[in-house]
Amino acid sequence: MKKPNYNKIYQEIIERNFPEKMEQTKHLLKENMNVLDVINLSNTLSPKSKSENQKHKSYDLDFIKTVLAYQEKNKFINQETAEKYNLSRNTVTRWKKAYSS
């Protein structure tokens, strides 16, 4: 399955809706963007409402492994990891059970 071209999508969104943020977001637009890049870019464009968009997030396996590696490296508990990435503790627990070796 092909991934969406986030670079093109966000380039158009920025040009149409946020032309004043073009310089601020230029370094965030990459050729191959991962989920973490998309989240950072979205938060930069409209940081106003985090809880509004929480229900419909989806994550790829690379992002999940990045989060779990970050947690292990920093010896975070699930709550700290969840707060860092704006997830629920249950989500982090579920990921640990499913993807940790």
TrEMBL record:
InterPro entries to which the protein is assigned, alphabetical: Trp_repressor/repl_initiator (IPR010921)
A molecular function GO annotation: sequence-specific DNA binding
Keywords: DNA-binding, Homeobox
Stated name of the protein: Homeodomain-like domain-containing protein
Organism: Chishuiella changwenlii
